[in-house]
Design a protein that fits this description.
heterotrimer; A alpha+beta (377); B alpha/beta (333); C mainly alpha (590); B: 333 residues; alpha/beta; D-Maltodextrin-Binding Protein, domain 2; five-stranded mixed beta sheet; C: 590 residues; MetI-like fold; two-stranded antiparallel sheet; 71% helix
Chain lengths: 377, 333, 590
Amino acid sequence: MATTTLRLESQPVRLEGVTKLFGKTAAVDDITFEAEAGRLTTLLGPSGCGKTTTLRMIGGFYEPDAGSIHIGPKFVNTVPPHARSTRTVFQSYALFPHMTVFENVAFGLRATRVPRGEIGPRVDEALDLVGLTGLAQRSSGQLSGGQQQRVAFARALVTRPEVLLLDEPLSNLDAKLRVHMRGEIRSLQQDLGITTIYVTHDQEEAMSLSDHVVVMQAGRIDQQGPPHDIYERPATRFVADFIGTSNFVDARVESVAADVVEVAALGSILRLAPPVGAALRPGESVLLVLRPEHLHLQDPDTSDGVGFPGRVASVAYLGAVATYEVALDGGATVTVDNPAPVGAALRHAGDPVRVRLEVDRVYVVPRTDSDTIRRSP
Amino acid sequence: MRKILVSLLAGLALSGAQAQEVIVYSPFSDEFMQALARPFTQETGIQVLNIVISTGETQSRLRAEAARPQADFWLSVRPAILEQAFGEDLIEAYEPAGADAILSAYQYDEAHITAVGTYPLVFFYNTQAVSRAGIEPPTADWADLLDEAYRGHIVMPHPATSGTAYSVITTILQSQIQAGGSEQDGWDVVGQLAQNVAQFTRSGRAPQTLVSQGEYPVGIGFYDAVWQLQQEGFPVAVVVPDPVFAEPYGAAIVRGGPNTPSAQAFFDYLLTPEAQAVLTQFGNYPVLDGVPPPAGGVVVPPEQVIDVDFRWSAENRERILNTFQDVAQAEPQ
Amino acid sequence: MADETSAMTGRAGSRAPRDPARLRLPRALREPAVAIAYGLVLFVVALLVIYPTYTILIESVRDPDGGLTLARYVRFFSSTYFLHTLYNTLLVSGIATALSLVLGFGFAYAITRTDLPLKGFFTAVVLVPMLLPAFLIAFALILLLGRNGVINRFMYAAGEWLGLADPSVLQWVIFGSHGVILAQTLTFFPMAFLVFSAALSSIDPRLEEAAEDLGASYWYTLRRVTLPLLAPAAFSSALLVFMFNASAFGAPAVLGGGRLFFPQASMLAPEAIIQILGLYDWGMGTTIAVILVVPSLLIYVLGEYYLKKRSYVTVSGTPTAFRLAVVPPAVKWTLFALCLAVSIFIISIVLVVVAGAFTRTWGVNYDLTWRHMATALQASRASIINSLVLSGGGAIAAALFGTLAAYLFTRRSFRGVRVLDFTAMLPYALPGVVMGLGFAVAFGGRFELIVLTGTGTIIFLNHFIRRMPFGLRSGGSALKQIDPVIEEAAADLGAKPVYSFLRITFPLLRATIMGAFVFGFINMMTDITAVIFLVSPRWRLLSIDLFNAIDAGRLGVAAALSVIMIVSTFVVLIVVWRASGRGLDFLRRS
């Protein structure tokens, strides 16, 4: 997609205590976050977590049952979609099947009574922007999936929205095109400086695109922050599990101090950074999050750092890395990703090993996510 | 589609415009009405709008519409029905311009009864169907129709929906009374006749067609429809019964109709030789002197014509219909 | 969100208070255009559905002294005559329904599951009866099978040739229950056909393949797999066809006279008309109408809200290439013989009417003549124009309004809309006699609220409201096929509801609206049961002229009027078809 001179008046979007009920079920339950002006915020979560419902409330298709939504300074809870400054790119693109590409893109301009003379140039500009120059007269049914998506973007952007809402825009594309479009969306968003809220269930997409990630589960927000924070310091078992791969090891809180907690796990006492967003009490059962790539296999007699003895249960050789299942003597089984060594050095099932931890990359999360979080003040 | 819409709107708008017209309720066919109306419209410019409905339906409509009459003129009504309708304030009295030229036999004292035309109530039969059914053609004697041989072979209209059939019933009742019997004797005849009737039709003119098509061999009904079917070439023959009901039919102006002056003009026109001549083309007999009867029509000997007291007919209508229902146990079909 | 690293966990200090606007109005109604449209729908439904139905109900229990009475209902159920009317109706309708199902299934199975020759021809012919009014079919049967009908004259001649003592024994005369049943079967079996062929097409053929793969024979598969899967379709089409049969007027009026199962009695719908138009007994007429409504309404409710939930539509994710069952030759050729015989019969119905129109005197003199056509064109010119204008206008209004209502009920729904939807659908279930009578009572000056007697408007409104359900249902099911996200996209791009409806929804529904128009138009052109109460000298209708001509036995003119009706209907349909050709194109593309 080409760069553009088009600049947009971006606005932040702020949700406070927003709840949406369907019948008696809360699809979205008391959520609060802000999508900053000009930045890309991702709502990430498995299907049914409420992320699309949240997006539809921002777009005006649903009305919150409680809480408030502001776009810039404006309270928009009850503003119908057509009166909002948001534009959505739908998962299915929702191109108008009875219209050409040009008519599709011009629709928003005509519907809002933009002067006739402006429409042509603006549509052309928008089509240039998404790299569809020359396809204006095609019928929307004659386009490939990727082209349809570009039309959907052009159609949304041509009206110069304050906020762009993207509902899993890449899910209908094949894997290769998806990676390519991801890059285009990011550069387009940054070029235009438009506030963008992006809904996806694909954590890789979320990590690679976002300025800010909001992880949702069962209608609630588990954690939000920049991508590396979410990955590096998962606040809940769910986040740790959903984003990347994690080993969970049972542990017990021994003592809690301002900047350190002591936990007992696998027969040792570990001094760790306190978890984000949750207060621990001594004696509480917790989980340790161990990322496979932060564990290292050593010969059993090595003794640097913190490590636990065990035996290799299975090996999967994946080329760049080798993934080991290791049964620790303490009872737990953990997955370890190590750079694949030269063939001869590969360990085999049954080999005794020592699993070394990077203690500063071991995180404590409450045993049961939500409840613990909700109890906290 | 747009055109249809436009013409629809135009049509709805037109219905409000006042053209010179007269709206007629009559059992006469569209063809008949148009032939009758043509000279009138040419002369006066008044359009004749009609709807083909039976006497019973017309009565229903006039009653339903009494508060806001939709029609101006009612053509072909028995004096008894006119008497009744006048009593209900549905029609108004009017003496048409040519009324004094009406033959004296067809003159009425009542201002609201004016004869317009007449035709006898006859027996008719399909010559082929009679032989197929293996029965004798009917004779002029009513009693012969009560023979068991005719069971299921006779078709006549139902008195509740047809003035024709009501005339059949009153003729039977009156002939018994006038022969010195009681009304109950008349009802016995009606009851036996009903036993033989295969179908009581809703319309007074349906028996003629059913017989002409051979669906039934024998029918009872007015001559004009038989005559018209004979013109078409159907194998239908006619018997003038004795006594024969040959009461004239009249016409009336609907009380409070939207075009009363036009209706009066139409009434005047009906009693001109020109209009009377049109009547004879459809098997009707004129009420004016000097107008020839239908060419090739049956002869009705005056001495056979029964004098039915129409006032008695009108006053007893409800009772007669109810009794008929009990006696015949049949509904119009 | 100043501190990005301190992950927030979705806590709000306190819940925001409930939005007070929510408590006032459903969200859909806060759009002024939507609220106005709902107001319009409510007004139309109240005035044209609820009010006439209510007046009929009241009229049937109104005492002459002003009180309320159930005396007429007591009279109905204690009178042998009226009970016989009811029995006649039930017997004739029951048998005609059973036959319609058999024929409808036979045609549907032959067309969807076999490779019979002439399938295209059968498909076209089976729809012909839908273009013909019921009483026209009955009338054609007289021309064919009346005592003077072509077939019976031939049979009589054959009897004479054989030297039979009574040559008429070979004749099969159409008058009577069997005639009414035959006419109604021919009239209504296409309805069963449509339901069955839709159901057969929606059964995944892989189920039948699976049965055969498991070793089941053809008959076993048919009996244990195919037919059970069709049971809901059979049941719902049985209900539908019975409902139409029970409220039929045309065939009993033309063929039923005096020779039904209980020979002295008629059937319910004609009886209601006789009570009103003949006997001027509004109370009894409306009572019979109400009695007629009850089963229709029960059937409708049953079909609409109970059966829908239990249909076994087996939709396969990916469309499978349609496979024709391996049908044993005996079955195949039996079906072929059935379809061919019925098709020939249907075609002869049309042909005999055309022949009758140009024959001097049917059964007597077969010389060709233009006389009937000239008479019909002259005498009924106004009726022809009235019919085309009122049916065309009514059908357009019904299709557009029905679609608008369907849009509101599906896309701008809120709690309680189902009740409105049900009420708006009622004119579909209510017999024509009831709707006609309801209008005659409600707008006929007996209640002074609105008097429309004698106007074209009353016919137009009656046409409109009785066919509006076509637009409502077909629009509703078409809208279910259109992803609502298309309309959300329009709103998202700034289109207000009206703009979005006109530019997006409406164009996408164009083919559906055309379908509703066509169906409504045909239906109105051929209707008599409702409009028989509403015609007036100024507003006569072709169908009523035709019925009168049949009733008076003027066969030549009746046949000529029939030809005019069929031809003018076709001309309008072809014009509409051509005009909408472009509108249908995009559907084929996408």
